Amino acid sequence: DGGITQSPKYLFRKEGQNVTLSCEQNLNHDAMYWYRQDPGQGLRLIYYSQIVNDFQKGDIAEGYSVSREKKESFPLTVTSAQKNPTAFYLCASSIVSGLAGGETQYFGPGTRLLVL
Amino acid sequence: AQSVAQPEDQVNVAEGNPLTVKCTYSVSGNPYLFWYVQYPNRGLQFLLKYITGDNLVKGSYGFEAEFNKSQTSFHLKKPSALVSDSALYFCAVRDPWNSGNTPLVFGKGTRLSVIA
Asked: How far is residue A38's CA from residue A86's CA, in Å, rounded to a whole number?
């Protein structure tokens, strides 16, 4: 899991509540990513950011929001619009280099979100 | 669009026997290919990647993978399986024609069980 921390490890959401998942990295990586993992569905991309103050939607961005105000931080908010938020959420980061696509993504330990 | 398929949801192998976890890909050019492993309630750990050069790539924990362009495959292998290899394995691809540091696209995962 290296220098990527995610908190909390478990998070409980009540009906209609927004919750924020934290992701911090001390690897000096430029790019950061959020994936959602559901059993049997692999990892699906929610949002990613290649540089501070910029981010792009992934395949399942509806009901989620992000910010990238600092290079080391990429928090994910699960809004009340996300009707099925129960899942394991994984944050990742990578450098941007001359490999132009060969960079490895490194993952944090994950946050499990449960709905009360 | 780039994609990756892991045709087996589950692979069972006896300890000491060779193991293979299959992966096929679809991209517009020569791909960048990755393998990750996930233990229960943990993040993904990087095992190995193919960028260019030798088709046989060696990685962590005695794993290796062979890039086969004609069969569009990148199967993960290990000569002698250990019980501790039991985990969920993910194959991932990035299309090098995409600019910048775009996110990896993951397969749905293959659960490996090594039986003592």
From this structure: 8
Q: Does A103 touch chain B (CB under 8 A)?
A: yes
pLDDT digits (tens, 9 = 90+) for A11-36: 998 888 999 999 999 999 999 999 99
Residues of chain A positioned with their CB less than 8 A from the CB of B105: 45
Please state the rounded mean pLDDT for residues B11-29.
95
Q: Which residues pair with B87 in a beta bridge?
A: B112
Mean pLDDT of chain B: 93
On whether the CB atoms of residues B76 and B67 are closer than 8 A, the answer is: no
Ramachandran area for residue A5 (φ above 0: left; ψ -120 to 50: alpha; else beta)? beta
pLDDT at A35: 97
Q: Would you call B46 and A103 a contact, using CB atoms and an 8 Å cutoff?
A: no
d(CA B54, CA B8): 26
Q: Check: CB of residue B17 under 8 Å from CB of residue B29.
A: no
Here the tokens at position B107 are 């397969």
Write out pLDDT tens, residues B61-94: 999 999 999 999 999 999 999 999 999 999 999 8
Interface of B with A in 39-98 (CB under 8 A): 41-46, 49, 51, 90, 94-96, 98
Cα atoms in the 13 Å half-sphere on the side-chain side of A87: 22
